Amino acid sequence: MSHDTLQRPVRTGPAPGTDPTPRRRKHWSGRANPLAGLGSVLWLAVVVVPVYAMISASLTHQSEALGHNALKPPSHPTLDNYETVLHNGFGHLLWNTVLAAAAVVAIVLVLCVPLSYVAVRTRSIWSGAAFRLFLLGVAIPAQAVVVPLYLMIAKLDLYDSLLAIILPTAAFAMPVSVLILTGTLRDISEDLYEAMALDGASPARMLFQLVVPLAKGGISTVVVYAALQAWNGLLFPLIFTQSDGPRVLTLGLFNYVSEFGVNIPALLASVVLSGVPIFVVYLVARRALVGGLMGVGGK
Length: 299
Prior knowledge:
The protein is built from 13 helices and 2 strands. By secondary structure, the protein is mainly α.
């Protein structure tokens, strides 16, 4: 080989006949959908307009409440209604509601996560029957069994207590929670289970070290769902409590209703304040919530 061949420069440019400038990737390949955009705007209006009207009415005076245009900003906004709510036992109602929601979430997670794990991993007749029994609860409305529940609560001496709200609420939140979690757990690859089994992992270790970390989306969905069931529940607090001790936010709205009239601005101010905490929870967990709901169907 000659010295000139060794010194020949190596070609680093593009091959002959090729475009030296790279083509830009198309970020949008679909066509516009005006109908979907119009539907989104209409849905946004359906959601935003009532919230705006509620906040606007909560800033008006009681004397102007009935004649106030809901879509018009208040001419003389005031925070007196919020002050009335905060000085009318709102802290006690909020604390009871937080305790009830936290207890319902804890019960649902402690029971539903292992149950869903057994339903997905076990192929026995009993596990399938238990899973179908829980799904049957989706079709049973709480109003249909409120009388037997009342008798059970009275027999257990739990009437007029927070447990009378927590236990039925958790029970009726479990069927949908099991459905969500089983759909999420079915998306976990079988190879991961086999790898941990080869390492000698027990079922309990698989549950806590494999299933729980990989099912965060479904668990977050269940947390938000169960918390909403407890936060917005009215039937069980109304039927199973009567004193001010275990009263929650939904029953606290009756503080502004009397035989002589309704304090509409204070009532709406209470609704606004009671919705802020659960709205914050939704904002924090919204991505996991959507991801968990997308996995409900399973594979």
